[in-house]
Amino acid sequence: DKLGETLPESAVKDVANGVISEALDQWILTRLHRAVAKATVAFEEYEYANARAAVEDFFWNDFCDNYLEMVKTRVYDEAGADAKGQMSAVHTIYHCLDGILRLFAPITPHITDELWQAIFARKSAGASIHARGNWPVAADYPVVESAEASGIAGVQLLNAIRKAKSERNVSIKFPITTLAIAPTSAKAQLEPVLKDVQGAGNVDAVTWTDKVANVTATSEDGALSLDAVFAESADAA
Description:
single chain, alpha+beta, four-stranded mixed sheet, 8 helices, 4 strands, globular
């Protein structure tokens, strides 16, 4: 158990004390803050469909499709090359899973209670997920606007890499030896999450330029252009 004897209190405290230090982790927690806030207002206004939409959008789009894909390399760092980054991811996933189960509790009551008491047995101490006062509070999750901007840019970059590989009919695991990204002005925003994106896209090296020589793919928002040099053999994937 990488969390040790003392369980994390809240995501906002873990960010404040430097345990959750990576921009990608702060991005997903910021997105969770916004999802909790939206769902809370929707439930208070008896707009249950809107509450469910906010929770599902965070779970499927932000957490499953993007965050888990980008954080895999860091969280499974078995060699311990980046112990601080790994611990940042472990704490973040802990807070996200806890928050997700509590957000889904009014929507899917039985399975969420079973999962919460199994996964968070030390925290629940046998109490139900439906106990009074157990609804998540947005203030327990940080809002880090710089990390949020980097995370959004990282998702755009990852989707462009996915597009490039899809058009080449290769899997997301297929290696890219060099990836040129334009424009250079995007570097400062992307750098905090770039290592995680490289891990998800299996990109060996990145270069920056104001204009790529051969446009392999562009980001959905049109802000990024990529020139990807793929590995020569499919056996490398």
